[in-house]
What does this fold into?
Amino acid sequence: MKADLDAFIAARRGEAFEYFRHDCVHIAADWVLEKTGQDPLADLRVESSPLGRKHLLASLRIVRRAGGFIQAATQRLGPFLPGLMAQRGDVVLALSGGKIGRVSGYSFGICTGSHIVCPGNEHLEFLPLTQGVAAWRV
It folds into this structure.
């Protein structure tokens, strides 16, 4: 599938963080879906609702059972590479230093080639590629 990363980012650039719609996991999965036609979250997607916290806890249990964020993503995206090996369009797990990533100080994002774009509180944020911990080819 031909997907335009710049258009994908531009369409979401000003969107604020929102669980289950514009959080780090969903933006990365939405990119994978747009690029490949395969949804890595097909079995986990829920609409925003008053039960959102319950779904967040269930999602965190899945991560815990897998052994962490890298292992959970690897189960859905395949083998990972070191973060510095990320290429444009790859999904990346970044160490955000608590600036973004509301749960753990880590955030999933997408490699732009020179940065990692991740959802921030008010809009997309661009982290240095050196913050990448792991990357998955898309």
Remarks:
- The chain has one domain: 5-136.
- Residues 62 and 68 are 9 Å apart (CA to CA).
- The first helix runs from residue 5 to 12.
- The beta strands are 81-82, 91-95, 106-111, 115-119, 124-128, 132-136.
